[in-house]
Amino acid sequence: MKYGVYTAILHDRPLPEALSVISELGLGAAEINVGGFLPPIHMPTIDDILTSDDARDEYLATFAEAGVELAGLNANGNPLHPNPEIGPPTLADIERAVRVAARLGQTRVVTMSGLPGADPTAPKPSWVVNPWESSLLDTLDQQWDVAVPVWRDLDRLAADNGVKIAIEMHPHNLVFNPATLIRLIERTEATNIGAEMDPSHLFWQGIDPVAAIEHLGELVVHAAAKDVRINGNAAINGVLDDRHSRFTGERITEIRGGAAISAWPQESAWDFVALGKGHGQDFWNRFVAALATVDPNMAVHIEHEDETLGRIEGLQTAAEVLLTAAQKVNPTGHTASAGQPTAAAAAE
Predict the structure, then answer these.
(1) Is the pLDDT at 21 greater than 80, yes or no?
(2) Exposure string (b/e) for 212-221, b if CB count within 10 Å is 16 or more?
(3) What count of Cα atoms within 13 Å lies in the side-chain half-sphere of residue 259?
(4) Where does residue 189 fall: left (phi above 0), alpha (psi -120 to 50 degrees), or beta otherwise?
(5) What does the alpha-carbon distance between residue 222 and residue 165 come to, in Å, rounded to a whole number?
(6) Please, are residues 183 and 141 in contact by the beta-carbon 8 Å criterion?
(7) Whole-model pTM over 0.90
């Protein structure tokens, strides 16, 4: 198993410093954002890497010097967004991510399925949560008709480059649970699409992530370590909580298309928290063990979004839980990732 960090939380510092943080946490792997919602802060030479062996070798050397393995790329975003300033550029980022992954000797690209509008003229995505009447089924049919050819082409591109696309099952996407992931794979006849098993978005939907791993089996190809705490207010308002608001000033985090991340509701139904703050050590032991059963070389990366903890404090909290779970799976203590692929290996 490979245990590391998705480095978007460390975009406040250059890549070498981010890798030093990961190493100091006792972790051995990193997942790097290369587009989508966010720009490729930790891969500024991405276009050069696609064409220059020197640029590729220099980038890989940064990981080798830090003793941290590059173990996946991330291009989360909405490739099906009807806004031409969002959907097509995001799709292009995912395609580029697949190609640059192959250049770097990588086999995993994480992203989201995306979500079209309710009809061909809609300017914004529309998520049908519960198609309780037939016009909503019509909307879903149209959205899947948009998604299938896009994802069939992405699957072919991934296969041509020896890459698996790991879809984060994320609400406000066509694929948000195991059933919709399987639907996408079956309708596209995909061979190189699987799941990124992020338990956080499954928790608040009432899904048991370990049961989901067992159900999906080898379709789980990558994983995130991210926790959720269900709060008492969920008993009153449920988990479909729309009481978000807008950040102002320095708290604004912009994403593609001029939008920004929303502020979380007060007295929320649920919150993203550091590992162990929502579900105890026993769950994380079982989660890691279930992943190891599917693939003993799978990468599991901490994704830190706990608003109550600073960047490093949150990562430290999560790393302690994750490494304890790793020790349970592998009592010999060899939990660090294998070494970074050499430039020669990446070139093959």
Answers:
(1) yes
(2) bbeebeebbb
(3) 17
(4) left
(5) 9
(6) no
(7) yes
